[in-house]
Amino acid sequence: MGKHATKTSIRKVLISAVMLVTALSLSLSISISTYLDVKEQKKLIVNKLQMIAEIIAFNAQITLIFDDRKTEEKRLKSFNKVELVKNIHIYAIDDVTNKPVFFTSYNASKTPPVPLKVNEIETLKKPKVSTDYVELIIPVEYEGKIEGYVYVRGGLERLSQYINQKILVDIALTLIVLILVLFVARAIQKRIANPIDSLSLLLQDVSKNHNYSARATKSDIEEVNMLANNLNIMLARTQNQLARHQADKLEIKQLNQNLEEKVNQRTIALREANQELLNTLERMHQYQNQIVENEKMASLGQMVAGVAHEVNTPIGLGVTGSTLLRDKLADINAAFEQKTLTSKQLERFIHDGIENLDLIYRNLNRAAELISSFKKVAVSQDVEVSSEVNINKLFSAIISSMRAEIDIKNVTWQLSCPEQLTVRTKAGLLQQVFEQLLSNSLIHGFLDLKDNQISIHVEQRSQSLEIIYTDNGVGVSNAIKKRIFDPFVTTKRGEGGSGLGMHLVYNLITQALGGTITLSDDNKKGTEFIITLPLKGVI
């Protein structure tokens, strides 16, 4: 058996899950929104800078043609009111070398000049965006001829300020939303956890004070009501059983007293011997009652622990799904009231809602199946009529019906049974038994896909039918060997195992079929079950 899992509670899990999902959702949403917003702002800045460069290029056509530097310098000084523009260079085409040369420039206030970019004209024709600046170069054309180039360098200080302000606002909004979600989660967890706490307190009272007259009250949660009703039925049956036991005890005591009086009347010589015998018998009854009581309480505690563990898991997942659906519904409602609801939001909400409802359905259905399995163990299986059954054909049919699961685990099997062996038994119940044994081997016994073997040996004796079922899997842990047929005993807790399979097998064989089943200790590797069934007739 593995290490025990860390203990937790529905309250902590619910609040932690809601807060974690909300924080992750907000962080992801804000990160994506900020990224897209910054990207769009940078695009707008680049477009604005391109438009300014085009205006400068248009105005510079004449000044470049007539080599009028003073006019162009005066014109460029007008950009001192444009906060975005930091540096402007205008390059003219040299008539001799036909290469761009410096013509004039502009530097904003408190902005140092930048080196000439005549060697980067081809590179900067596509805008270059860095952490702090945006640079670009466009040609100055006049009647289809390039007269020069305009280089513009813009600053991104305002964009950085905008990003910092947006981050502060997003952090504040996230904290407010998390506080609101915490209050909502606390309200929901109180509604879910309080009925379960009530059941827990009731069981503690029954366990500590033997108060079997106590009854669980109804709640507004259907699954908890089902659990409470079954618990009330169990407590009522236990109370009736104890009352009958007490009555039987009083009757036996009265009979013993009458017997003592008769013996005393008949012979005084045997009084001391009879008295000692009665005292011994009384002590034996007391020890017997104590053992029965201890066994009942141990079985009750184990059963309650198993029921609580198995039912808590699907209920917790269902609560998580309903909380997520409620949060998404609140978002859609807020968008609808603010008239900002889009078709994409609605489509995403419908998709997420279907997924959450599927999650809730699956887990509620899982809880219902667990309750159904629990009822199935308690209900008598002695309703099938005995019929003539060919044992060899029955086992072959069982193996054929489970062929897909057997092939997945790469299992080889061997059936040793006389072909003509026909007995009168309950075929359906026997089929359930061996289907459960095969499933246990496939799920619990075989952990890999190598050399997996299953053997079934059937032998007819004078008054019984002996069946030996063997696999070469990992075997049964020593910790649960003595409790393997008890309810809710499993090594796959949290992985789909309910712990009712071998208990059902035991009930079917011992009660419905009237036989016995034991786990062999002689098998060194794997698991071996020895089943003995009484023969009602052999054909």
From TrEMBL:
Known EC number: 2.7.13.3
Example of a GO MF term: ATP binding
Histidine kinase domain ranges (all copies): 306-537
Transmembrane residue ranges: 45-66, 167-188
Main location: membrane
Coiled coil: 221-290
UniProt keyword terms in alphabetical order: ATP-binding, Coiled coil, Kinase, Membrane, Nucleotide-binding, Phosphoprotein, Transferase, Transmembrane, Transmembrane helix
Organism domain of life: Bacteria
Enzymatic reactions: ATP + protein L-histidine = ADP + protein N-phospho-L-histidine
Keyword Nucleotide-binding: yes
Compartment(s) where it occurs, according to its Swiss-Prot or TrEMBL record: Membrane
Pfam families (UniProt xref): HATPase_c
Kinase keyword on record: yes
Segments forming domain HAMP: 190-243
SUPFAM superfamilies: ATPase domain of HSP90 chaperone/DNA topoisomerase II/histidine kinase, Homodimeric domain of signal transducing histidine kinase
PANTHER family assigned to the protein according to its UniProt record, in alphabetical order: SENSOR HISTIDINE KINASE
Protein name, per record: histidine kinase
Originating organism: Pseudoalteromonas obscura
